[in-house]
Amino acid sequence: MSSKNRIWTALFLVAGCNWGVTVTRAFCVTPTSPLRKAFTTDRRLEYHVGLSSRVSRVERHRSWSASASSSKSITLHQGREDEAEPSLTQVAKKAISPASEFGTPLPESASNFNKAAVGIIKNAVFDILFAGDSLDRSYARFYALETIARMPYFSYLSVLHLYETLGRWRRAEYMKIHFAESWNELHHLLIMEELGGNARFQDRFVAQHVAFGYYWFVVAAYLFNPILAYNLNEAVEEHAFETYDKFVEQYGDTLEQLEAPQVAKDYYSEGDLYMFDAMHSHQTSSSSCESDLRRRPKCETLRDVFINIRDDEAEHVRTMAYLQKTDSDLLDSGDDLCEIIDDDITPETAVLDIVSNGSNATTMHDVVS
């Protein structure tokens, strides 16, 4: 047997053993495992769960919650009269998150360990490698931090895509929020590159190689326990917030005299703000419809830019903290529901119309139009 054939044979054996262990564990060892749940889940109910998230957003926008809670639950019938589908309220309760589906709550000691570990790495590595009081060394430090800070969101997306590919779990809202967060970190990185933070080869070498290892570490952590991965990133983003806050306090007067880079202006004020809005998971319900209530930061000077980046890190901290809750559910607030709402349509009738009429509509825009 040639060496090429031996390599292929070994790969097939490894893959076969891996799938054998996975299937055995899912169906024979742990009856309540996520994989077994996925294969035994009613797909029709999953469709209603995805729709109920959109319906909930419409309900918030039009203040229908009060009337909906006082009305009787609608029973959706299909086939015989005595075979009732789950009510809208029951369907909404089925909504899940990565933390509730795959996670295990962390003890306080584990959370404290993550914070301590992040602090030690920051002080022992980055404070030494990027030492210096000049703006140039600060930009290089921020370049490295932003290169690394993008990795957790790439890791989350990779695992969520893997779950979806294998048929284990799927919720588009979580892939959207994590992509929006990675998009936010990308623009932080672009700003630092425009300021010259990536000018030195050694700075790029350190940042890129640490980021490569960090990506795979977070992938493993997210597969093992999403709550652990979210908690670790919360600690990282807390340190990022503190770093930027101290930088603004120290160099605020100097930064006030410098103009904001165009890439920052485009992201924060002058360009398409869809992805910027999608990154915010804690906007008020009314802010989803009224643009003047959304976060619209000033971006004229370099001081404004670093204040905006600091506030972005605070938003990441809030999102990571929320996603660690096993009873949390993330609702998408970055769409255009406000522009397509019909006064004659309520959340319950929207669901009822789709199911009873056998509509092929897949979005709320299709429902109301």
Structural account:
With 369 residues, this protein is an all-alpha fold. The chain is built from 17 helices and no strands. The longest helix has 31 residues, at 226-256. The chain starts with a helix and ends with a helix. 29% of the residues are buried.
Highlighted features:
0% strand; mainly alpha; 369 residues; disordered C terminus; single chain
A few lines on this structure:
The protein is mainly α and 369 residues long. It is 69% helix and 0% strand.
Let me know the average pLDDT. 74
What class do helices, strands and sheet pairing give? mainly alpha
Q: In which range does the helix fraction lie?
A: 55-70%
- The helix/strand series, from N terminus to C terminus, equals HHHHHHHHHHHHHHHHH
Number of helices: 17
Shape: globular
Number of strands: 0
Rg result = 24 Å
Distance between the termini: 64 Å
Largest sheet: none
Which residues sit in consecutive blocks of at least 5 with pLDDT less than 50?
23-83, 86-93, 284-288, 332-369
Tell me the strand percentage band. under 5%
